[in-house]
Design a protein that fits this description.
The complex is a heterodimer of chains A (480) and B (444). With 480 residues, chain A is an alpha/beta fold. Chain A is built from 15 helices and 14 strands. In chain A, the strands form four sheets. Chain A has a seven-stranded mixed sheet, with helices on both faces. A three-stranded antiparallel sheet of chain A has the order 12-14-13, covered by helices on one side. In chain A, helix 6 links the parallel strand 2 and strand 3. The two termini of chain A are 18 Å apart. In chain A, 61% of the residues are buried. Chain B has 444 residues and is an alpha/beta fold. In chain B, the strands form four sheets. Chain B has a seven-stranded mixed sheet, sandwiched between helices. In chain B, strands 11-12-15-14 form a four-stranded antiparallel sheet, covered by helices on one side. A two-stranded parallel sheet of chain B has the order 1-13. Classes of the chains: A alpha/beta (480), B alpha/beta (444). The interface between A and B is large, with 206 and 206 residues.
Amino acid sequence: MKTIFEKSVAGREGCWPCEGIAEEAYIPSELLRDGTIGLPSASELDVVRHFTKLSQSNYGVDGNFYPLGSCTMKYNPKFTEIVAGLPGFTRLHPVLPQLQGAGGLCQGALEVMYETERLLAEITGMAAYTMHPMAGAHGELTGVMLIAAYHRDKGNKKTKIIIPDSAHGTNPASATIAGYDIVSIESKDGIVDPDALAEVLDDEVAGMMMTCPNTLGLFEKHLPEIVKMLRKVDALLYYDGANLNAIMGKMRVGDVGFDVVHWNLHKTMATPHGGGGPGSGPVGVSERLVPYLPISRVAKQEDGQYFLDYNHPKSIGYVAPFYGNFGVYLKAYAYILRLGGTGLTRASENAVLAANYMRKRLSDHFEVPYDRICMHEFVASASAQAKKGVRALDFAKGLLDKGHHAPTIYFPLIVPEAIMIEPTETENKATLDQFIDDLIELAETVDTNPEALTSAPVNLPVTRLDETTAARAMELTDDL
Amino acid sequence: MPYVPHTEDEVREMLATIGVDSVDALFAEITEDMRPKSFDLPEGLSEMEVLSKLEAMAAKNATDRISFLGAGFYDHYIPAAVDALTMRGEFYTAYTPYQPEASQGTLQAIFEYQTAVTRLLGMTYANASVYDGGTALYEAMMMAVRKTKRRKIVVSEALNPIYRVMLDSYTSNLDVKLVTVPHKNGMTDIEGLKNAIDSETAALLVQNPNFFGSINDFTTLFAAAKAQKAVSIISSYPVLQTLLKTPGDMGADIAVAEGQSLGLPLSFGGPYLGIMTCTKKMVRQMPGRMVGRTKDSEGRTGYVLTLQAREQHIRRQKATSNICSNQSLCALRALVHMCALGEQGMKRAARLSIERAHICAERLTAIDGVDMLTQGPFGNEFAITLPTNAFDAIAKLTARGYVPGFPLGRYYEGLENGLLVACTEKTSEEHIGIFAEMLKGALK
């Protein structure tokens, strides 16, 4: 489809923000740009049709099953959009509560922040929260900065963060950016091996980042032992909350000894992913890390008034310009209120139920390297099929052809030809069955007609795209 | 239970297939010692009840105030088409476009966004977005550190102080030294900045218009940075950038911006949009996603995520950044906003905003004891000094329904009487008149 720039016609006007045109040039010409910018010139209908057509070539949760492992693509309730669109929230300038005498003008928004923090703290058993991080990885970076601040404050000389080989790529990236060296440890039987941990654990370890259940969908059952080992060297334990959808109401990370946790509210709390963002990555901490939390912190006076508290001398400072992605966590707050404690627990139970059901039905047709009770996701492998020339990628494309979004593939890195499936709790059994039947049918095609798989997809707006040429040609914009 | 479809019969069937007799059995590995010590959460509510509760909370926020607050975040008009198109479920409920054949909508939209912002800023390449204007500056700074392998960063004090605090926070555990060059009466001290750049300097950070609203041409400054092989980074304001000399024309290596003013509501601080653009020589250091154009196996044009070897999901600890989720939908909003207004509409909004600010400045400085702090050309925002403390004046006027602006004393010592005032095309002359009268009364 042509781009909106190719569809532009010079002189065609869009919608004006308002009538009137400024007559006077207030700015000397040497400070101005010359000529046209090359922004679109199109009528409003041109624009509406263009983007409507574009949207129609996308798979989204509203239209397609989206079992992307580690991404928790659950249904996003529609009513939360009404909440986020209330003028009482959308029109608020973020500087308002920082002005003398204006705190009273945004009590409702401050209450949302305060209450969301309180609810997340209860769900995870942490002492306090910051809502500021604007995505999961941003939460990771904030969390590792908090770990660094703790050690700096205590005068500890720490240089390393331990990360299991099954971790998301964001973990090592976040810890590196925060100034640490990464020590990777090998999993054993799909989970962290305390013996492997003992081998690398020394006084220079600042902390360890864990995902639980991990990216294989397996519960880390050695947790209590790992916590004890880390405490001995004053190392902190970080919880990557990407997979929190498995354990709500079943385990609280604070209770079992984690010091830091980040959420991905856009996963667990059902705020839409929007094609890759915006997300929200609030961070919770145990009592000993509270002094280092970013400022401002929302607090409540005795008379029930909320205010922003900047008086935290040990704070790591600002990780965001204001209070995080308010419009996103507002939706998460509404979702938590809608479900309540019981609903959240049911969400986790049904996410785990669906994953195990799919695992069981698929395990006769695909290798499942850790074929035991899993949590909210599991990892199958197409290595047997790959020997016959049909790889995980081909299955992914075959599934696209059948109207499903593909699972996550080639991750985690420790499983060859990985196909990582996370159904979430919101898909009905018929959808799960259809997907499984389709995948089994694809598996049967490997022997009869492998070309059908290696040439998929054929039912979409485009067939497989040439990524090598894209990287070489580097055509990242339309030419003027 | 809301949003869980399984009937009791279906649950039984699924458990039978799995070969366990209860859902609890699936959680057996979480032993008793790891179970929650408490889980004291409210009972769930109906959709209607949640809506009522949140409508009541929203009603506690004042939306009826006439505001002259800016400080980098502005209340511009957003065409209705922006919501209508970006709220479509196919955009809204999609994930990162890792499967390009099923994500051409998102991918082409990002490609078009990249095209729009590079044209706006006069640069060559853009990424698909980062979280906000502040994190964009931080990422740009780190691009320069990687590129030059140097550690010193020269920052103008006339750069948004909110972002400067962010930069301080992000670098507290890193071997990076920030050197701040003071502003001169609200002006960016170009000579001072030139003198601060040396052979150890990784990057220079400036803003146009600067925090006080003052407009500059940084061409000679960037040339001075180039002579020392330092990277020039500029933060700009996209609405005014439709009129102002571009970062590209000035010779910037990286140009970033807060994209909130392109179709995003103020929304109490987020979600916003970090725009990042750069020259060809910096592109390999760029963080985050980028979309490229290519062909499919049938020769048709299509779009893919490209240069992914820079990213965390491929390169892990060697990635250029840890960013994964970005502000994709906000970038889409910015694109639709620019398309809906079109080039002429965008320029019109910018011109009107500037005109309103100049009318406002004239009215306010006509008051006894009120003077311009911003010297030289300015756009839609300017700083004035009051004969009294600005915090008090703000409190007085806010209580009467007008929020007069941002107190400069919050971040600048010695400017306790300074007030930063912003206008947009939404600011009416009538409101400017009332504001001036009120201020006059408050200062008596």
